[in-house]
């Protein structure tokens, strides 16, 4: 397993706006030894896609514990408020990054919420 594991809820309307919630997308960050897509092992599950992601700019905050939906909502709200006060413009929905396996003791878990910025 790679770390972090990124999860992002895609809106049902297909946009990045305030549509109803749609499906949850899980992403894995591959090690740096893979220099290009041709080097990456081919998935055996047709639901898994490998794609290269261009660099992006995010506002990020770190927290520990179990990343419950409620706690993530609180952290996203706090982060967006801080970014707005600092003059940044949020351009999309948040991404949750989790760095530890599920059996890790909650207070030792490292999580991040990331919001895309202009």
TrEMBL record:
Where on the tree of life does the source sit, at the highest rank? Eukaryota
SUPFAM superfamilies according to UniProt:
Probable bacterial effector-binding domain
Q: Matching InterPro entries, A to Z? A: Reg_factor_effector_dom_sf, SOUL_heme-bd
Pfam families this protein is in? Answer: SOUL
Sequence segments annotated as region (Disordered): 1-21
Concerning its family, UniProt says: Belongs to the HEBP family.
Q: What is this protein called?
A: SOUL heme-binding protein
The organism encoding this protein is: Ceratopteris richardii
Q: What is the lineage of its organism?
A: Eukaryota, Viridiplantae, Streptophyta, Embryophyta, Tracheophyta
């Amino acid at each position: 397993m790679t770390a972090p594991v990124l999860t992002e809820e895609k809106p049902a309307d297909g946009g990045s706006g305030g549509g109803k919630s749609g499906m949850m997308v899980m992403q894995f960050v591959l090690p740096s030894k893979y220099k290009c897509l041709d080097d990456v092992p081919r998935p055996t599950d047709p639901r898994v896609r490998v794609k290269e992601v261009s660099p992006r700019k995010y506002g990020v905050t770190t927290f520990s514990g179990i990343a419950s939906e409620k706690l993530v909502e609180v952290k996203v709200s706090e982060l967006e408020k801080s970014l707005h006060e600092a003059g940044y413009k949020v351009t999309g929905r948040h991404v949750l990054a989790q760095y530890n396996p599920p059996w890790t003791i909650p207070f030792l878990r490292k999580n991040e919420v990331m919001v895309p910025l202009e």
